[in-house]
């Protein structure tokens, strides 16, 4: 016969039985909900040890029941597919709490009383939820997998002994509703070095508190990955310092990126993409980008110095005199310029070649304008603010004098 004793303390792993005698109710999952389900097959007359999947999955199911946001509980099975339900959220939450904690208590829902308490044999105790008095074989709906004997319950007819069947329990709870926004300052960038400050704001609108918040963010430039200099890390929002995102709270995460000249040269945008996931809820996405403005520019100054040939003394150029030209090519834009060459359209009638580079005016960061070109008329790379000195010379011919 079914054991009726409540005496003795529970063993360390408390086993639970659920016992219902209810009027059947229609059941539907509410929108924005998730469901925890226990469902196992039981064979008539079989005793399931505490290591069986029927018992271990029951214990895991009970331990996983949420401490808030429960909206309904449903008991059903292969012999009674419609089953029974408690669909009043506040009452369903109390039942779930009792089921999880093994409390001795009673909750009225839909005209039925859900009573909880210990029931079992010496050394093996189970928490039971029943209509009226617990530990009764006449219960027509009972789920008690950890009872330690063959009276593990049933969903239709006598619960001990019961026929072979599948027994299932659903606990439905409201999933979290969250919003996520992202921003960056400044929103446009044209110089380096500079720092971009990214901010990600998570607002937990509704649902149970989120004990394990998970915000992730990645950074890319034109599809190529980049690494944040710092973050994203929580900077504000946990008002009660409980480590959980409670309904109504907005948590702000911060991250930064150090903009280098290569980023300006690459152009496009530095796009941060964030996602926030809450257990049982959808993943929320947001992004923010800093657009890079490119402004290439080069200024050139030119000066000429007349060097008189031996025997020439006139104030103006004479045959055989040399004119030395000095050029300064300055990168006045924000892009690194490569293969810089000066082409001077000289109008003299003698031999002429393009200016060659003489030296670098390294006005910015040291070493950021290297010359890798073998051509003396070409400077390999000029960073913003740097300048290259070029030089050329021309010897005045008689034809130049005659053509004046």
Report what the structure shows.
With 404 residues, this protein is mainly β. The protein contains four helices and 25 strands. The chain has helices spanning 53-63, 89-101, 261-266, 398-402, and strands at residues 15-20, 33-42, 70-77, 80-86, 105-109, 112-121, 124-131, 141-143, 153-154, 165-174, 177-185, 188-189, 194-206, 214-221, 224-226, 230-236, 250-259, 269-277, 283-292, 298-307, 322-331, 337-341, 356-361, 378-382, 387-395. It has a six-stranded mixed sheet with strand order 5-6-7-1-8-9.
Order of helices and strands: EEHEEHEEEEEEEEEEEEEHEEEEEEEEH
Mean pLDDT: 85
In terms of per-residue confidence, which ranges show pLDDT below 50 for 5 or more consecutive residues?
A: 1-31
* Count of strand segments: 25
User: Biggest sheet, strands in spatial order?
Assistant: 5-6-7-1-8-9
Number of helices: 4
Task: State the secondary-structure class.
Answer: mainly beta
What's the shape? rod-shaped
Largest sheet: 6 strands, mixed
Distance between the termini: 130 Å
Fraction of residues in H or I helices:
under 10%
- What is the gyration radius calculated from CA atoms? 41 Å
Note the beta-strand portion. over 45%
Please give the oligomerization state of what you see. single chain
